[in-house]
Amino acid sequence: METVTADGADSPALIRFEEVSKVYPLPAGNVVALDTVSLAIRRGEFIAIMGPSGSGKTTLLNLIGCLDVPTSGRLVIGGRDVGELSDDELTYLRRDTIGFIFQQFNLIPLLSVLENVEYPRVLKCGSRGACGRKPEEVLRAAGLAEERLHRSLPSELSGGQQQRVAIARALVNDPDLLLCDEPTGNLDQKTGQGIMELLVAMNREGKTVIMVTHDPGIASYARRQLRIVDGQISEDSG
Amino acid sequence: MSRTFFEIAQRNLRRNLLRSMLAIIGIVIGVLAISSLGILGNSLTLSVKDQLSTVGDSLIVTPHISMGAAFGGGLAEEKISERQVQDLRRIAGTDPVIPIYSTADRIEVGTTKGPVSIYAIDPDDIGYMVEVDQGVLLRGTSGVLAGPTIADQFDLRIGSQVRFSDGSTQRVVGILKERGLGFDIQPDLALIVSPKWYEDRNSDRGYDQVTIKVSDIERIDAIEEAIDQRFNRRETVLDSYSSKMILESLDTVFSQISTFTTAIGGISLIVAGISILNVMLMSVTERIREIGILRSIGTLRREIRQMFLYEALILGAIGSSIGGLLSLGAGYLVSLLVLQSTDYLFHPSNLGSIALGMGFGLVTALLSGLYPAWKAANLNPIEALRHE
User: Fold this and answer.
1) Mean model confidence pLDDT for chain B
2) Chain B residues with beta carbon closer than 8 angstroms to that of A62
3) In terms of C-beta density within 10 A (0-12 exposed, 13-18 middle, 19 or more buried), how is residue A50 classed?
């Protein structure tokens, strides 16, 4: 196992890209989504990844989210080389250490709000498990205290409320890392601000937040901005 | 944990209620077909066996009819002589040996006329072959016994007068109990007279058949062997066959029929399986994005697989249970229509047929769920998430 090396002033690198490339083979020819990217992300950072569509920012996020593995190079997350993990090990890593927040909220339509939030915890701890955080408590922390809403189906909630449920779901297993793909993309500006303030608060509590966005206003909430063009990092404010 | 997957599976089936119900109906029909055809086959076998078992352990000896004789019109010439009967008695030892004349005649009772079979059996032996329902068995040379079917047909009672084609008459002294189908004689459809009366009217002495009632079932083969040794060493003179042998071959025939009807039911289950496969593949296609979400937030491949197999299992379990219950009703109807009797409905072999049908229903559903479950589990999470 890779030891976590100190990178930067005070905290160790949580995520380290070492000349990582991701190539998608397509019938029309190979598409290089990421081109030998090297990058270190420390624990507790709040990063916005920006860039035009097709630039490779979502690929970067998918790799960090262990939904995909590099074609070449090394990607080390929490000291583990992602390229060497099995599908089950990647799944456990997602389940236990990563919270996902999507543009489309991506709640399970068959489950109630409370069950949606409970689901990752049930995966980790079993139906009677006592690990992770209490679903009601994370829902409250995400700004959904009303118990009436907990029993509703996601489709009965507004977009902003659904995104708060998604955030609660992402937090329930107390992950180190929150990955957000255009978290405000489907929300009006005011609701979006509320969600961003929530993410800032989570970051203050110690979560590493990595967010893909093309909205400079939203990106300004982050303390470090990365710009990707044609699969390469063209700007890094950190 | 698996409770959650079960819950999701169950809710998804309810979300597509109509589709789920159609898949369930497919399984119901399949189970129903297997079970009720199985019940029909079993009941058929059971009822025939029951009817035949009254024959007991008889060894039936008949004159050998060579192909030449059969086709040359010499059928009537073959008889069993008194000397041969004596030899058979020696072979049988203490077991009763019953020589039987068998013929047919047109009779007249009042204004009713018609053909009947007639057996002539020694009064001492009649008790081994039949029982009386009303009246008494034959004594001496006078009187006839009438089988129940004949008694019905000619409206015979104790004391009725039967006129034979030669003009002679006899009175009915007893009506027989129904005995059902037999291998040796068919007393239900016949009159039984005394051999003396028969011999007085027929010049050709010689029995048509000899029945040996074997008390010890183990000895049947030995007696048959001894008959062969004594009579058939140079050429075949007498044929002998045992009820046991015939029952065994009938059993084979009926179990083949059962297998065949069950196979027909099996075909309908295959169709049901295909419909489940179709329903679940649709379910996988529609839920690609949902599967992507589940995978991205930490659901293992095998857990996705489990969730889809639960769906198949629920469809199979509901379909099989309904099918099992309905097949009791269908079995009742089928037995009533085909056998005119529902006595055998709750026989263990019929309950076994239902269990078999239900088991097949469940297994079919599970097998049909395997591929969709595998397909769902192996979706690429990123592509699944991007799916609209």
Assistant:
1) 86
2) 382
3) buried
